[in-house]
């Protein structure tokens, strides 16, 4: 099983810790395909390859050259990818790889318990899996559904981890979505919103929040209790430091 990840220089250490936990707890053999956001150094590459089962690392410059042709007729997609590193999650994974099933995991999700078939679909109607979220972390506002009557999303999802059937990735939908003028305050949520829009179109499901969730401080205080642990915690924002201090 190949799992994609987006990695930057700042997060090499936490990425190794978290991806190693994914590898060690999986009953399936895991290899990683990592995508450089443009900040990785030659030393970073050496460290990553020495500590993780890496199939390939796509350097940003290399990926830029390949995707220039793919996105030449999709100006909104091309512009978004050039301006926002999260564009790598939208475009590089489905366009650079040919596997029919594409799995992705952020570099700050730590796995506590063994698992199998994590990146498998519950039924034939499901073509994408996303994480559960406590809120609607999207760039959309309520009035956008009146402005664009056909607009639909799956509620309360997060794109920190996903699994999608490649044939259902829709570049035309991405171009339509990214060509709209979403509120500038919420542009950092565009990639996550796109995956929720795609899920509504192609048939999506959500991993249970009992399995993988964003921890609260009280959750961290209970980590010594094996029975209180979920399958994994998603350590976003300032919680990343917890990984290096307590989980390395």
Automatic annotation (TrEMBL):
InterPro entries: Nucleotide-diphossugar_trans. This is Glycosyl transferase.
